[in-house]
Every structure is written in structure tokens, then in C-alpha cells.
Amino acid sequence: MRCLRVVVRGHLAELTEPRRLRALFMGLALVAVIPVAAAAQPTPHPVMTTFKIRVTPPPYPKKAMHATYTVEVNRYGQVSRVRAGVSSKNSGFDALTFGNAQQAFIRTADGKAISGLYRLSYDYSPQTHKVHRDVVLIHAGGVNPDAPGKVTVEYAKAAQREQDAKRRAAAAPMPSANIRLPEFDFIVTPLPSSAPSPKP
Questions:
Q1: Which helix (H) or strand (E) holds 26?
Q2: Cα 57 to the chain's mean position, in Å?
Q3: Which among 69, 68, 67, 83 is positioned nearest to 147, based on CA atoms?
Q4: Staple 149 to which of 75, 78, 90, 115, CB 3.0 to 4.6 Å?
Q5: What are phi and psi of 101, to 5 degrees?
Q6: Which segments of 75-124 does DSSP mark as H helices, in order?
Q7: CA–CA separation, 184 vs 175, rounded Å?
Q8: Which of 20-24, 50-54, 57-61, 161-165 has the lowest mean pLDDT?
Q9: The overall pTM is greater than 0.85
Q10: Contact present, 140 and 115 (Cβ < 8 Å)
Q11: Above 50 in pLDDT, residue 93?
Q12: β-sheet bridge partners, residue 78
């Protein structure tokens, strides 16, 4: 105990010297001033960073490509179903043309729609790097004019999937951190003892 008091008294005596005490207060003042000075400075404005990156497009195909689709069109001019198709050898071109065929609206020059069966032809030219689409009416009628458009059906399915996911998330039980704890009644109810309790 005596050794401890000497050590503590010695350190206390050193700390209370005027020179060291002054240095301690200066250090505390400096530590207190730095955050205040940093907070007083205005936030710098964001600077736009520009990068000189040259993105080269993929090379154009060197061969001519051709794809044909037979589609059913409803009374609004929407493609309701792709009945048949003849694809090219390029899967990327086929995917683009098939997607375009499903999204097509086919109308006459005066804006009227004729329900029926149509042929959509897509021709890629390697000289011009452009795709030409040709629309030919095979025959009017013979299809369901009230059928919903293919894109309309896909949008409805996507909206239904989104609603189902929200409904499942709302109906799912909330995870709990206390899921493994016993019921409260079990905790507070005393267990019957096999030994009789002593009576006073």
C-alpha cells in the first residue's frame, strides 16, 4: 500500500507542475478547437470528373440476314400471337427481330387496323448496316379479333408476379430474435415438486 501511494503521489506531483499543467491545458484546448474549426469550413462543391473512354461498338455482321414471322393481329393492330417463324443463323438478330415482331402495331396508312394474319419479314444489309422490315397481309380475319396483345399480356403477367411477391412478403411471418424461447406461461408457472413441502 505504501509503494502505491508513493507512485501515485509522484505522478500527481509531476502533473501539477505549472509547466506541465500549462501544456496539458493547451493540448485540451487544441483538441477542442480542431472539430470546431473543421465544422466552420464550408462543404466543398462536388466536382464533375470526366473520363476519356472510347467505347467501340461491336462489329457489324458481314453477311446478309433474313428472318420471317407469321403473326396474328387483333382489331387494335396489336400482335396477339406469333404463329410461326423462319429464323436466321444469328441468334442475336433472331432475338431482336422476334421481340420486335411481338411488339409490332400494324395499321394501314390512314390509321385503321385490319384484324388478320400477317407476315413480317426482316432483312439485314451488310452494306448499309440497316434492317428493313416488310409487312404483308396474308388474309383478313380468321383470328380472334378480341385477343389481347402479346405485350399487354406480358405486362399483365409481370404486374401479377410483382403483386404476388408483395402479397407473399406481407403474409410471411416476421422473423423474431426470440423464436427459440419458451412460452411465457411456461416460464412463470411453477413446476410441481415431487418432494412435499414442509409445513410450519
A1: helix 18-40
A2: 26
A3: 83
A4: 78
A5: -65, -40
A6: 91-103
A7: 18
A8: 20-24
A9: no
A10: yes
A11: yes
A12: 105
